[in-house]
Specification:
Order of helices and strands: HEEEEEEEEE
Number of helices: 1
Radius of gyration: 16 Å
Strand order of the largest sheet: 1-7-5-2-3
Mean pLDDT: 78
CATH architecture: Sandwich
Number of domains: 1
Structural class: mainly beta
Shape: globular
CATH topology: Immunoglobulin-like
Helix content: 10-25%
Strand content: 25-35%
CATH class: Mainly Beta
CATH superfamily: Cupredoxins -  blue copper proteins
Oligomer: single chain
């Protein structure tokens, strides 16, 4: 009986648009959903631009690596992690040798109002490469 109730609750929450935070609208280099409002954040040399946009719930944030080295967009909590996004024209991560996507991008849909702090795992501490996404109704 508990299993059926749990499944029914999950189905009802999904049907009613229940969400507890940001959701991935694709992995690296997948475009955001057609018709979605998109806020683009550029990753360049050791900065996010804009680092701290304010967006409406339902907006997609798309981080694009336009820099000369690999970067990540990683939630300070556990809400999202882009993984390594390579610099344009490269296919190797200089920090670990992992094959990555050239000129990588990563998109997230932010459905729930709140403030989501994030950083680059490679440059967040050393170069203060940090930001926040503020989501309003």
């Amino acid at each position: 009986m508990r299993i059926r109730v749990g499944i029914a609750s999950a189905i009802i929450a999904a049907a009613c648009g229940g969400s507890s935070g940001p959701t991935s609208s694709g992995s690296t280099n997948n475009p955001p959903p057609s018709g979605a409002t998109v806020e683009t954040v550029s990753m360049t040399d050791f900065a996010f631009t804009p680092a701290s946009p304010t967006i409406k719930a339902g907006t997609v944030v798309k981080w694009v690596n336009n820099g000369k080295t690999a970067h990540t967009a990683t939630s300070d909590g556990s809400a999202f992690d882009s993984g390594t996004l390579a610099a344009p024209g490269t296919t190797m991560d200089p920090y670990g040798g992992t094959t990555t996507t050239p000129g990588g991008s990563f998109s997230m849909t932010f459905a729930t109002p709140g403030t989501y702090a994030y950083h680059c795992t490679f440059h967040g501490t050393l170069n203060n490469m940090k930001g926040t996404i503020t989501v309003t109704q």
